[in-house]
Amino acid sequence: MLNLREVVRCAHCKLTNRQRLMACAIADTVSDHGVRIALLEQASRLYRSVKRRYPNTMGSEFLGHDKQQGKAYVWRSSTFRFRYTRHEDITQLSYRSKSLDVIAHSDVLEHVYDYRAALHECSRVLAPGGALVFTVPFFQERATSLLRGKPNPDGSLTHFASPEYHGDGVRSAGIYTFHWFGLDLLDEIRAAGFAQVDVGFCYAPELGFASTSGVFRAIKQTS
Hints:
It is a single chain. The chain has helices spanning 4-7, 17-29, 45-53, 115-125, 184-191; strands spanning 37-39, 57-59, 72-75, 83-86, 100-106, 126-135, 146-147, 149-151, 157-159, 165-166, 175-176, 179-180, 194-201, 214-220. The chain is α/β, with parallel strands linked by helices and 223 residues long. The strands form 5 sheets. A 6-stranded mixed beta sheet has the order 2-1-5-6-14-13, with helices on both faces. Helix 3 links the parallel strand 1 (37-39) and strand 2. It is globular and about 45 Å long. This is Methyltransferase domain-containing protein.
């Protein structure tokens, strides 16, 4: 089946459906071009687009558990020959507490086994009133999220559902999917310290949005 989130690109900016949705959500969230943004991707057109509009944007990729948070590394993949990229692990970010206005990530949480730790880290690094903007594959018909597998101490995986891998800009083999998120994700976001949580859906073929992709925006508590 054709994945309209990923294959439909704008003829002008070259961003995919999902990337354009993220760019629009970030633009709708902030008006000051000097805001401090951490975008948890760097080897992408989305990063370059956001960086041009908001110069204080910091990009990063997850480069492996053996890497040091906040340090830049040279790496290569089947797509990119060499890249000098900052490493960040969403479950233990290197950014100071309350140091960011916006933190954004796109289709990351489903690949993080301890996604609750990731949500709490996003809350920690945001200033009061700061915004978390992100996408995940979201199944709004599900009351509870589905855990598809878990990691074992020896590095292997125990599968509770058929293995699912998504494309990845760093690892050519793809990246394992631990979660299919349902409506209970909204409660988990609030529990991590966010006072307001919204999910927006945009289906506007005349604007190039040809799938029912959703984007989350959560505002950190101010006290």
